[in-house]
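General statements about sequence and structure are easier to judge against a single worked case. For one protein, we set the task of working out the structure tokens from the amino acid sequence alone. This step matters because it turns folding into a mapping between discrete strings. The amino acid sequence and the backbone structure tokens for this protein are reproduced below.
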Amino acid sequence: MLHAPAEPLRRLIARLPARPPAVALATALNLALRPKLNEAHRAMLHGRVVLIGVTDAGIECRISWSGTRFVAHARHTPHDVAIRASVRDFYALAFHTEDPDTLFFQRRLRIEGDTALGLGIKNLLDSMELPGWIAGLHARWMQRQSRYI
């Protein structure tokens, strides 16, 4: 199970530059999602800045679709939509262990700003299957975690 970082660590993370986590997120999305985006997805995302906020870790990343790849933006870049959730809830969303609509209606997944874009992104993520190599890593990690329960 994923746990939120302790409060002192969360405060430290919140003070770090926003660019490195945003670059890491853009790179991960380019590896995992870019090959699976269809033209409608690309059109929906093109030029729109999305803030991904990990509430319990104090992390906010701004990314956008450039037309060919996901790119990172600095902290001061205005965003079109903000999607916020805890580490655990983003994990559940990515690995389909909880229904995204449930997360949304329980207010565990918050969408602010252009809600139509936010809901489109939520639906996009819900419809995507992660590449096999990521699913394999997840399965191995879950197997290791089960030893400690």
Observations:
- The two ends are 9 Å apart (CA to CA).
- The mean pLDDT is 83.
